[in-house]
């Protein structure tokens, strides 16, 4: 199974007649095992205690762009879904991020994480100092969910199957290895594993039910590969710009104190 997924060959069509739901789930989980951003060197440097404070700030600032686009992409998905029961379930995601008034949900908690690291809230919210590649990656995710089929858009959210794993690696390491990080800084992550499990259970059931031909199964697998690339590209961009004392920081992007 390994080489099929890694090589991006047509896995589902190669299995003549397609995959059973359990086999499709196994391939999707394998994509995560091979491609999720917990395998990225920037994540390993974070959990190893090796990021400078400036690199930690750059991560929070750039990840804000991702957090901010999530409810917009979920609203795009909502607008395209014809089934009221689907919409009733999917809209919970928007509520999670926006809260009741826009600033009492996940986006506000991410902003708190960023400001706890010493960043200015307005600067973070403006997204002006994010890396070019962050903006492109986040924009690609939004366009993907607007332009591809509903099945592909739902399948692209399935990285959430793996987010409890990375959160479980990240949070204890951040608390242990960086003296300026506290439980309060990381409050964002308290609610996420439960929310992500609820969301990914629903999305996985949808995908295994609706990916009912080999071609549709392959589209679902490719959507998840695409999304792993989005997350990977965001960490690649951070690594390129901020490792080695910020040698490759693009013009106009955030310049930490320790990389001046
Ligand atoms: O901490 C992480 O590494 C991580 C990863 C992901 C993901 O895998 O896409 C999400 C989140 N966090 C997250 O907090 C979140 O709200 C979220 C929504 C989605 C999505 O695609 O709809 N992914 C993620």
Shape verdict? globular
| Class by SSE composition | mainly alpha
Distance between the termini: 47 Å
Low-confidence stretches: 1-7
Please write the string of helix (H) and strand (E) elements: HHHHHHHHHHHHH
How does this model look, in words?
This protein is mainly alpha-helical. It has one domain (36-243): Heme oxygenase-like (Heme Oxygenase, Chain A, Up-down Bundle), CATH 1.20.910. It has 13 helices and no strands. It has helices at residues 2-6, 11-14, 21-35, 41-47, 53-80, 84-98, 106-116, 121-126, 132-147, 150-156, 163-177, 188-210, 214-246. Helix 3 runs parallel beside helix 13, helix 5 runs antiparallel to helix 6 and helix 10 crosses helix 13. 38% of the residues are buried. Pyrroloquinoline quinone binds at residues 70, 106, 157, 159-160, 163, 166-167, 192, 231. Pyrroloquinoline quinone (PQQ) binds at residues 70, 106, 157, 159-160, 163, 166-167, 192, 231.
Summarize the structure.
The protein has 260 residues and is mainly α. It has 13 helices and no strands. The protein is globular and about 55 Å long.
Spell out the blueprint of helices and strands.
Blueprint: H1 2-6, H2 11-14, H3 21-35, H4 41-47, H5 53-80, H6 84-98, H7 106-116, H8 121-126, H9 132-147, H10 150-156, H11 163-177, H12 188-210, H13 214-246
The structure holds pyrroloquinoline quinone (PQQ).
Pyrroloquinoline quinone binds at residues 70, 106, 157, 159-160, 163, 166-167, 192, 231.
Q: What descriptive keywords fit this protein?
A:
71% helix; Heme Oxygenase, Chain A; 260 residues; mainly alpha; binds pyrroloquinoline quinone; single chain
């Amino acid at each position: 199974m390994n080489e099929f997924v890694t090589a991006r060959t047509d896995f589902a069509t190669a299995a003549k007649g397609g995959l059973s739901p359990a086999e499709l789930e196994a391939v999707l989980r394998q994509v995560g095992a091979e491609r999720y951003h917990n395998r990225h060197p920037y994540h390993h440097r974070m959990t190893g205690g090796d990021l400078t404070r400036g690199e930690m700030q750059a991560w929070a600032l750039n990840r804000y762009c991702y957090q901010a686009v999530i409810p917009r992409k979920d609203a795009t998905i909502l607008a395209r879904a014809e089934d009221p029961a689907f919409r009733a379930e999917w809209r919970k995601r928007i509520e999670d991020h926006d809260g009741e008034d826009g600033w009492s949900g996940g986006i506000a908690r991410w902003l708190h994480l960023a400001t706890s690291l010493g960043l200015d809230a307005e600067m973070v919210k403006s997204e002006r100092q994010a890396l070019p590649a962050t903006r492109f990656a986040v924009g690609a995710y939004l366009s993907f969910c607007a332009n591809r089929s509903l099945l592909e858009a739902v399948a692209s959210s399935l990285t959430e199957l793996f987010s409890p794993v990375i959160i479980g690696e990240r949070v204890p390491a951040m608390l242990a290895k960086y003296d300026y990080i506290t439980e309060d800084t990381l409050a964002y992550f308290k609610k996420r594993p439960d929310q992500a499990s609820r969301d990914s259970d629903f999305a996985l059931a949808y995908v295994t039910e609706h990916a009912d031909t080999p071609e549709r199964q392959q589209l679902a697998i490719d959507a998840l590969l695409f999304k792993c690339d989005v997350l990977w590209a965001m960490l690649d961009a951070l690594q390129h710009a901020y490792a080695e004392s910020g040698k490759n920081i693009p013009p106009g992007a955030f310049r930490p104190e320790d990389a001046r």
